[in-house]
Amino acid sequence: KPRAVGTATVLISGSHRKELSQGFRKTTNNRMELLAVIVGLEQLKNPGSEVAIYTDSKYVADAINLKWVFGWEKKRFKDKKNPDLWMRFLKIYRTHQVSIHWIKGHANIPENERCDRLAVMASQQRNLPVDEYYENNVGQVNSTFETP
Questions:
Q1: Rg for the chain (alpha carbons), in Å?
Q2: At residue 57, what are phi and psi to the nearest 5 degrees?
């Protein structure tokens, strides 16, 4: 259901930690779950990095681990939602060694709880930016998505 939603990423490498969050005035939870993964991967400085991603999003975890997204890509995302973000994901995903781990949400996993808090706070900010792709294509399922 479209509404003001936030996204958040907590990056941890050894003793280094970085937290990123952003809200949007009208978008969906699935878009924000996927964007959190993308933003985290885009922060990595070294190509070929080994990365473990933990997400409570079945949408994201299953699309990757069950290889659905690769089939969607072959069909140019015909009749699939969020092609803009999936293309952005695949571009950065292919530059690293990524494993995706699904974790139960709201299960007292500290970093997951922190992401939830950051995302909620981000969604409550004033003058939230527009999720351009979503707002320009709301209600439309993609017939085919032209890859850049």
A1: 15
A2: -95, 110
CATH class of the domain at 3-136: alpha beta
What residue spans define the domains of the chain? 3-136
- 106-129 pLDDT tens trace: 999 999 999 999 999 999 999 999
pLDDT at 106: 92
Q: Give residue 65's identity as a one-letter amino acid code.
A: N
Q: How confident is the model at residue 137 (pLDDT cuts 50, 70, 90)?
A: confident
Q: What is the distance between the alpha carbons of residues 85 and 50, in angstroms, rounded to a whole number? A: 22
| Contact criterion met (CB below 8 Å) for 145 and 87 | yes
Q: What is the pTM for the complete model shown?
A: 0.91
Four-CA torsion 32, 37, 38, 40, nearest 10 degrees: 120
| Phi (first) and psi of residue 144, to 5 degrees | -150, 150
